[in-house]
Amino acid sequence: MAEYNSTSTKAEEFIHDGKIRETLAFAQAHKDDLDLMREILNKGREYGGLSYTEAATLLECEDPEIIRQIFDLGKEIKEHFYGNRIVMFAPLYLSNYCVNGCVYCPYHGQNKTIPRKKLSQEEIRAEVIALQDMGHKRLAIEAGEHPKENPIEYILDSIRTIYSIRHKNGAIRRVNVNIAATTVENYRKLKEAGIGTYILFQETYNKEAYEQLHPSGPKSDYAWHTEAMDRAMEAGIDDVGCGVLFGLDSYRYELVGMLMHAHHLEKTYGCGPHTISVPRVRPADDIDPEAVGNGVPDDIFKRIVAVLRIAVPYTGMIMSTRESAKTRRECLEIGITQISGGSRTSVGGYGDELDEEGGFDSEDTAQFDVEDRRTLAEVVDWLIDMGYVPSFCTACYREGRTGDRFMSLLKAGQIANICQPNALMTLKEFLIDYASEETRSKGNALIEERLGMIPNEKVREICRRHLEEIEKGNRDFRF
Ligand code: SF4
Ligand code: SF4
Q: Which ligand is nearest to the CA of 397?
């Protein structure tokens, strides 16, 4: 068996099954050791993160007082690094053609009941205009893996189309890409196309479970999939987004695997993942989550979010509309920094005209059922009511603050001075261009209150001037 080596570029060496099992055994054996738990929490309070062993141990503790402290610390760390801004995004499904056999996804190649659809560039235009009219500025594009239907050229054309569209005051300013593991050469092309984050969920880190859940197609190769972030880094993409699909295998194993992956990226490339996503298995066409098998209950799920927040304080954490408004509210408090809103998880789900003209019901092509079905405007209003600043900021990557540059600013606590004014200015744009009068007035009061809390006087004054400019019709200011 391979030795554990965190800086190896071989999947089985940097995600080491033996080491994960050893870690889980240690965590189990120490689950009642409250002194150790307090020690780990104290380390977390230094805001420097935790090792995967410490995180796994903390997650095992059933003591109510320690659990309360885990949530409190998650909240404290979130407030320290991210303030009260919540970054907004939407997924855009380009194509559900797929040659892979993932047993938990309705797009798997063997599913003959789901209608297949790939958007033309004209249809992408319609989708993007619909998204811009909602107020979105940041998208995550999604496509199945299909060499004939969805080659890299199709993805690149689609990115170009998305960036080129200007409708009223709308613009998509950051396109994140969630496509199958690919070659260094293709990652270079994505980098050149100006993508934000390259996102690829590992699904499960357990190789044995992975091979059972992915019986066919290129994705069935565990090493090819697991080493994708290394190839992306080699190609110069330094903002990568990790994630697992909770519910496929034991959540304990996944937590350690994901943190081991983050550790590997940090050690090898000097920069951990830009984001971590925490999806749970959802029902869909041909998919029954009960049959897939390792469902994570809500209380454990929240603990996972808080432990991750403490373990990787510099990594953004994303929660989609797979989760209910209630779960999203609770998780926003203890760690989540980015959420989607008004999402459609189907191909062509945003452009109504598409359905009428084509006689095509996009809902039939959904990848999973959405739990939070509110519109973006409703989600924004809800966030403002809770005192959060919904942010449509895309500044960092456009200012070249990616990878370790972004991380060092964040670690130095600098980013809070930059994020806050950017959040206020992009919220102002949203309030003027897309919000109801009621939301606008609540939002303006929040902006006024938060503006006064920007510590740097010069930044505060520039931000105030930019807000006035936005009132006059100008757009796209950033720090
Ligand atoms: Fe295809 Fe991705 Fe679905 Fe797997 S998860 S079947 S690769 S779309
Ligand atoms: Fe994100 Fe950078 Fe904007 Fe902050 S300034 S919200 S880190 S893009």
A: 2
Q: Are residues 188 and 276 in the same domain?
A: yes
DSSP string covering 290-359? HHH--PPPHHHHHHHHHHHHHH-TTSEEEE-TTS-HHHHHHHHHHT--EEE-S---SBT-S-HHHHHHHT
CA 44 to CA 295: how far, in whole Å? 28
* CATH (domain of 236): 3.20.20.70
Q: Which ligand is nearest to the CA of 81?
A: 2
Closest C-alpha to ligand 1, atom 2: 144
Output the residue whose Cα is nearest ligand 2's atom 2. 396
User: Do 257 and 359 fall into the same domain?
Assistant: yes
Residues 89 and 65 occupy one common structural domain:
no
Domain assignment present for 478: no
Domains in the chain, number: 3
Which ligand 2 atom sits closest to the C-alpha of 479?
5
Q: Which domain holds residue 84?
A: 79-389
pTM above 0.85, yes or no: yes
Q: Do 263 and 292 belong together in one domain?
A: yes
pLDDT tens across 382-403, in order?
Answer: 999 999 999 999 999 899 888 8
Q: Which atom of ligand 2 is nearest to the CA of 391?
A: 6
Last residue of a domain, one of 31, 54, 72: 72
Which pLDDT belongs to residue 205? 98
Do 380 and 416 fall within a single domain? no
Residue of the CA atom closest to atom 6 of ligand 1: 108
In a domain, 406, yes or no: no
Give the pLDDT mean for 345-373. Answer: 73
**pLDDT tens, position by position, 60-94:** 999 999 999 999 999 999 999 999 999 999 999 99
> Ligand 2: which residue has its CA nearest to atom 4?
419
- Ligand 2 centre from 16 Cα, in Å? 33
Strands 198-199 and 240-243: parallel
**pLDDT recorded at residue 86:** 98
Mind listing the pLDDT tens digit for each residue in 15-49? 999 999 999 999 999 999 999 999 999 999 999 99
Q: Ligand 2 pocket, 232 CB below 6 A?
A: no
Nearest-angstrom CA–CA distance, 220 and 222: 6
